[in-house]
Amino acid sequence: MHKKLPLLLIAFLEGFCVILIELASGRIVAPIFGTGLQVWSGVLGITLFGLASGYFLGSRLNFIKNSIIIYLIGSASIYVAAFTYFSETILYSFSTLNYEIGLIFSLFTFLFIPLTLLGAVGPFLSDRLASLNGKAGKATGVIFSISTFGGIGGAFITGFFLIPQFGITKTLYIASFLLSLIVLFIISIQHSKRKSIKVTAFSSVLVFIFLQLEISAKKSSSSMNQLVKYEDESMLSQLRVIDVPTQQHNGDNVTFRMMMVNNTLQAIVDANNLSVDYLQFGRLMEPLIDNYFTGKRVLILGLGGGVIANQFVNANCKVDVVEIDSRIQKTAIQYFGLSERVNVIIQDARRYIENTDQKYDLVFIDTFHGESIPSHIFTKEALDKMRLLLTESGVLITNFHGFTDSERGIATAAVFKTLKHVGFESKILVTNTNDSEMRSLLFLSNLNDFDEYPALENLTISNLTYKSGYEGNLSKFMVDPSVLSVQKAPLLIDDKQQLDFLLREVSLEWRLYCYEKFVKMNKQLNISIVD
Predict the structure, then answer these.
(1) Which of 265, 225, 227, 259 is nearest to 240 (CA)?
(2) What is the DSSP secondary structure assignment for residue 111, as one 8-state letter?
């Protein structure tokens, strides 16, 4: 039995590292490609492709020499460390491609080679175990069973401990070091060490160098530019609060305080005056709140920095906010001045609307998670539940992003069509009248065609963008729904949740905009000029 234990231990650790690399890869591409269904489908598909290729490779290798397993695991260790260090440059270069092509290339570059190398380890271990008990089928079953148990342990430890405690980058370096330790363990139980020690030493030194470069880069960035106020990683997302000194074209110096989820903007205010909101849809909301919702009962799905929630509180509204991520609540309180009068419920928004019996005068949907808009919030079943939460003259307002033209506006048309199907009459407001530019959209939806809201189109909007003077009546920012390709748009239903798929190109464009505008700004030492 003592001869079998090393083989079983290696199988367990190999399975552990495979799942660790798989989960971390899904998170490391999130700042560029998001966290939608396509991302995790790509992760699973390429993981299986890599492992299948590894099993085939293992079946073709000559395992007479024990040193082969050292080269396999050692090479995987080096590759993971190298890709981790260069990941940002690699991912950003692929982001210029079509969304699906860029995503698949990115995941393939990261996952295929290390998982192929690790997949080839299984046949080696099965061959060695079979040589001990003489039963090839039993040996194969035992090895792959133990490897799977290692994967189960890796899934829980990675998701619940490693990524939340250490972040994605350090977690991948841990995987590299763990693979190097496996190599050292193999060498320690072999009689002939001279041919193998070079691989282990080379692997360990390279991983150590990459780790030191990463640490040095972060220390250098931190010492030169104390901009990050808060930073945390979890399986939900990477969350940062960043202060960025800027100079506007009118000469004013302003320090932007930004909440970034997966490097995508969620909130932006003046760090010295937290009540000043620079997100344009908030400017559209101001006259609506002041004229129609003072003293009302409001439900907000999605907290962000809590700026909109504070606007309602300042209008003497009773505000409930449903937020899935407890970290968002903490940072909104500490860094964005979230009012203590806001009742925050930590729960999935869909779960809340399915179970609450409360009635509201307004339901405001703002469920952005990074660049993604959860598909299950916008199905006809979900919207029908929200309809039942509204009072007789209640309003549903939806914060959305994208376009209204026939091609890129298909997601906008799908949401409009689904709202119509449920019984809502909707008006569409835009933060930018130029349909070719990225912008926020607001769906104003009501069951009574807004009979209870007179003079809606004559409300005055002022200072909508950073540049002063961009103002006018609300009608100026309304889009005629007839421009939408509603006939071509699908109806969004629970059984076919496809909103994230329809938004994939729009979301990629928004992520790249945030990367160029805000993430690179954070890395610069000079004061940035903001339009």
Answers:
(1) 259
(2) I
Q: Where are the beta strands (DSSP E) in 417-509?
A: 425-430, 440-446, 460-461, 472-473, 478-479
Full DSSP string of 384-402: HHHHHHEEEEEEEEEEEES
Question: For residue 173, which phi and psi values (nearest 5 degrees)?
Answer: -65, -35
28 token code pair: 């490391």
Q: Note the pLDDT of residue 15.
A: 94
Say if residue 287 is exposed, middle or buried (CB neighbours under 10 Å; 0-12, 13-18, 19+): middle
In degrees and rounded to multiples of 5, residue 342 shows phi and psi of: -85, 125
Instruction: Classify 180 as helix, strand or coil.
Output: helix
Strand-pairing partners, residue 255, are 245
Residue 399 pLDDT greater than 70, yes or no: yes
Where b means 16+ CB within 10 Å and e means fewer, 388-410 reads ebbeeebbbbbbbbbbbeeebbb
Strand partners of residue 320: 299, 343
Q: Is the pLDDT of residue 37 over 50?
A: yes
C-alpha distances in Å from residue 301, one per residue of 261, 321, 380, 525: 17, 6, 17, 36
Task: Say if strands 472-473 and 460-461 run parallel, antiparallel, or are unpaired.
Answer: antiparallel
Q: Where are the beta strands (DSSP E) in 35-185?
A: none
Residue 386: pLDDT band with limits 50, 70, 90: very high
Query: Three-class SS of residue 64?
Result: coil
Render pLDDT for 407-462 as a digit per residue (tens, 0 to 9): 778 999 999 999 999 999 999 988 876 666 667 889 999 988 777 777 787 887 76
Which distant-in-sequence residues (6+ apart) come within 8 Å of 530 by Cβ?
246, 247, 248, 249, 254, 256, 466
Tokens 């709202």 sit on residue: 419
- Planar angle of CA 293, 299, 302, nearest 5 degrees: 120
The radius of gyration of the chain from alpha carbons, rounded to an integer in Å, stands at 27
CB 342 within 8 A of CB 294: no
Average pLDDT for the chain: 82
How far apart CA 171 and CA 252 sit, in angstroms, is 42
Average pLDDT over residues 242-246: 85
Q: Are 453 and 404 in contact (CB under 8 A)?
A: no
Tokens of 227: 């901009």
Dump strand ranges (E) for 109-252. 228-233, 238-248
- The two tokens of residue 411 are 């997601």
HEC profile of 317-345: CEEEEEECCHHHHHHHHHHHCCCCCCEEE
